[in-house]
Write a structure and sequence with these properties.
Layout (H helix, E strand, L loop, with lengths): L5 E3 L14 E3 L2 E3 L4 E5 L5 E5 L3 E3 L2 E3 L4 E4 L2 E4 L32 H8 L8 E2 L10 H4 L2 E6 L8 E3 L10 E3 L2 H6 L3 E4 L2 E4 L11 E3 L1 E8 L2 E9 L7 E8 L8 E6 L8 E5 L11 E2 L2 E2 L14 E4 L7 H6 L3 E7 L3 E8 L22 E4 L12 E9 L1 H5 L2 H4 L4 H7 L9 E10 L3
Length: 428
Amino acid sequence: MKLYLIFIAIIFTTAAACGSGESSCNGACYKSGQYSCVTDVSGGLMLCPVNFQACNGACYSSSVYHCSNGKLVYGAASSTTSSGSSTSSGGTQGVNAGPVPAASKSTTSTTKAATSTTKAATTTTKTPTTTSSSASACAYSNEQKWSGSNFFNQFDFFTAADPTNGFVKFVDQTTAENDGLISVSGDQVYMGVDHTNVQASGRSAVRISSKTSFTTGLVILDLDHMPGSVCGSWPAFWTVGTNWPYNGEIDIIEGVNNGETNQVTLHTNTGCTISGTRNMTGTSTGSNCDVVATDNAGCGVTVTKSNSYGTNFNSAGGGAYVMERSSDAIKVWFFPKGQYPSDLLSGSPNPCSWPVPDSSTPIGNNCPSSHFGPQNIIFDITFCGDWAGAVFASQCGGTCTTYVANNPSAFSESYWLINSLRLLSRSY
């Protein structure tokens, strides 16, 4: 969903012979449509994505970061993250880039999300089949179950300004508890937004990021309710690595405004494309996952089940989303309530016995596994901003921020009601 608008600058020390239509920047060749040659604070030249600036060896978006004394600082000078994540491996960036996604979906991205145009070869196999014949090699174990009273212990609360320019105020855990934005009842966890007060400076909401990260494995989210299809809202359940986009991003649940279908999207740096037949039931919206080449849109898959998202999901009684990261694919399944595989919540699920996934992205020569590093899990609900706000007038009419500020009761259905979040790995 939200993307880290921070890049390690492309720096070359040897002269390059540039081709037709290319320019040279400090020895590197580039095309002006995607990159530009900018002056670093040190006075040297650096190659950065278009509209980015340079700060002591790092490229950044000035709408998200600023350069202070040669170091890159998130948001306003006093803003810090609460993620507790380690500093990005970029070294010279001087910024904690843990699970603090800082970029946006542009209007272009929104258009791609709202259409069903297939831009990549896609197989929409509807017949349930298994994906492997080896049950022993496919089964997962070593389950971590986050639910009830232990759920929020696994997360940090993000309280800085919304990196996607949303009309929102993310609050800390104590405030969220006192204001009724989060609560626990038995094993169930509630996370919502303020839906009682007119809020002229942004609606109060919660955004949390897991304290631990994961690589390969299985993530199972069982929930009775997700944020409804409400004009102005932009909820998401997703994973992301540090130093975006070099460790990748996987959007598992995401949509805006009054949307009725879920979109699964991957975001990477250059060198991750999808070709050939994909064994999945969803519809592809793009084949290039590179955020620069796609203007941050990435490569998406629309889940075709009518009850996969928002109000329709809730009316059907909820369901489960599963994301599997393995050495050869990233897959996402949606199971409506009452249609769970018998082993889904057993502690030892075997996805090889499940139906064809809703989304499947092969990992290999065209998209090496190096594009996806350790990632943290994030839940959030924001409003307006770079995606929901960009299409609000066409989808809902009027002005997004005015509507969100003055209609608190419209967001009474903007909440997550989670039964459990499970992380599993394989034993070898």
